[in-house]
UniProtKB/TrEMBL annotation:
Protein name: Dynein regulation protein LC7
Domain of life: Bacteria
Organism from which the protein derives: Amycolatopsis taiwanensis
Every Roadblock/LAMTOR2 domain range: 9-99
SUPFAM superfamilies: Roadblock/LC7 domain (SSF103196)
InterPro entries: Mycobact_SerProt_Inhib_Rv3364c (IPR053141), Roadblock/LAMTOR2_dom (IPR004942)
Pfam families reported for this sequence: Robl_LC7 (PF03259)
Length: 131
């Protein structure tokens, strides 16, 4: 994680404080960890980032096969003990949230959308690669 990513962790604290939220990260379009909350250990954030990159790729494939081919807006996985939400956060980046099972999924999805809008998609976006 870069120094810039560490400096931007404050952006995720608004989501982290929602009751039942366990981990919040932002990953780049190529699956690299960009930002994590202080409550998410680095090794957990790295594993989550890699898993979310795969999930986003699967969602893209599903969109190509059964939808319009556009990037999926949000992917949600329910597992025994909680939920994983992954949504676009600008220019290929993804905002990922892991929660406990006792949350309202609609509320978390709404908060994620609001957070992306408040922060601005440019603040969470993946920088364009040159060269």
């Amino acid at each position: 994680m870069t120094a810039e990513a560490a400096d931007n962790s404050w952006m995720l604290e608004l989501i982290r404080t929602v009751r039942g939220v366990r981990h919040v990260i932002v990953l780049s379009s190529d699956g690299l960890l960009r930002v994590r909350t202080e409550h998410t250990p680095p090794e957990v954030a790295e594993r989550l980032s890699a898993a979310c990159a795969g999930l986003a790729s699967l969602g893209q494939g599903m969109s190509a096969e059964f939808g319009t081919g556009a990037a999926p807006r949000q992917v949600m996985v329910e597992f025994d003990g909680g939920f994983l939400f992954v949504r676009g956060a600008g220019d290929g980046s993804q905002l990922a949230v892991v929660t406990e099972h006792v949350i309202d999924p609609a509320l978390v999805a709404q908060q994620m959308q609001a957070q992306v809008l408040v922060i601005g998609e440019r603040a969470l976006s993946t920088p364009t690669r040159t060269g």
